[in-house]
Design goal:
Blueprint: E1 3-7, E2 14-18, H1 21-28, H2 36-40, E3 44-46, H3 48-60, E4 65-69, H4 73-76
Parallel strand pairs: 1-4
Antiparallel strand pairs: 1-2, 2-3
Length: 81
């Protein structure tokens, strides 16, 4: 896996995490220089729409992309106290 996308909230925002040197280098060609540190620290968050575009582009370039969810059912349902 070169890049991992993890759904982090009920709005389907994704945490973008490079997992290989190839994944990091590919991301560096798609993000501004001032964002590289955030990329290397896995602190970049992208929208569902942008993640779909990234997955398509990266897959077409031959990268291996995996998507996971880090939210539970408890995070999705409203809390009633």
């Amino acid at each position: 896996m070169d890049i991992c996308l993890i759904t982090i909230d009920k709005n389907s925002n994704k945490s973008l995490q490079p997992k290989t040197a190839v994944g990091m280098l590919w991301l560096q060609t798609h993000f501004e220089n001032n964002q590289w540190e955030a990329l290397s620290n896995s602190t970049v968050i992208i929208s569902e729409e942008n993640s779909k575009l990234l997955i398509e582009d990266a897959t077409n370039a031959g990268l291996n992309i995996k998507c996971f969810s880090d939210i539970s059912m408890l995070d999705v349902f409203p809390k009633n106290n």
